[in-house]
Amino acid sequence: MSHTAHIPSHRKPRRGASKTAIRSGVAGGVLSTMALAGAAAPAHAEPVTETIEMPTLSSALAGGVAQSATATQRVAVDLELGAQEDAAAAHAAKVAKKAKAEAERKAEAKKKAEAARAKAAAEERASRSEERTTLSASSGSSSDSTGTTQATGSAAAVLAFARAQVGDAYVLGSNGPDSWDCSSLVQAAYRQIGVDLPRTSQPQSTSGTPVSLDNLQPGDILYWGGAGSAYHVAIYSGGGKFIGAQNSGTGVVEKTLDWDPPSGAIRLL
């Protein structure tokens, strides 16, 4: 007997040929499938784009957006209303300022008129004397010891008002109480005795009886230019003088007739 007969062998037993063939077939099938898949795939495959679906607004979030829009609209409305209120307040202030100025102008004119009437009354009382009572009251004038014609009655009131405006400014189209043009001064002076004259010099120059410049009495209206087409008027104040709103350089003045000789005169008193 061999001395190696009882030593076990360490070699693995041979696999059967059938198992080896089966395993080779499976491996081959897998490799063939991978090869076919690789051949079917394009050489430059497009990258896969992942689409992310945005979450929809929840009812709470939608409500918040709506509330924000409503608040923004309310702010815009409030701003517009505020602008309208500011404009209305500015307009009201402007109207109030104008009304106040007009009220002050009327009050000043009334004050001057009252002062003129008081002054005329005082002058009339002072001018009364025995020698003047023989003169006709309708003449509206009297003479002192020097022969100078003095105004009385209605003429005195007219001249008192006109003389109270001496020193005021001349402004074309102005009606007082601190500035005048020639015809507005004459109109305002005669209004003190209730005589309503036209506003401009042209019709004023034909509103009474024509009189000679050699026979003037206080209160007569003097005019420059033609009767009915006069370009300037004033009031004869007696003693060879007149009171008038002459021009922007002189304002309302009392001057002698030779300073600016008139063209004619009319009498209303």
How would you describe this protein?
The chain has a domain at 117-129 and 138-267: endopeptidase fold (from Nostoc punctiforme). The chain has a 6-stranded antiparallel beta sheet. The protein is 44% helix and 15% strand. It starts with 16 loop residues before the first helix and ends with a strand. It contains 5 helices and 10 strands. It is elongated. The model is unreliable at 30-41 and 129-148 (pLDDT under 50). α2 (59-127) crosses α3 and α3 (153-164) crosses α4 (182-191). The protein is α+β, with helices and mostly antiparallel strands and 269 residues long.
CATH architecture of the domain at 117-129 and 138-267: Alpha-Beta Complex
Low-confidence stretches: 30-41, 129-148
The first-to-last residue Cα distance is 189 Å
**Mean of the pLDDT scores?**
78
Task: Describe the main β-sheet briefly.
Answer: 6 strands, antiparallel
The level-1 CATH class of the domain at 117-129 and 138-267:
Alpha Beta
Shape call: elongated
* Strand content bin: 15-25%
Helix content: 40-55%
The CATH homologous superfamily of the domain at 117-129 and 138-267 corresponds to endopeptidase domain like (from Nostoc punctiforme)
Strand order of the largest sheet: 5-10-6-7-8-9
Order of helical and strand elements: HHEEHEEHHEEEEEE
Query: How many beta-strand runs?
Result: 10
Number of helices: 5
- Using only CA atoms, what is the Rg? 58 Å
What structural category arises from helix and sheet content? alpha+beta
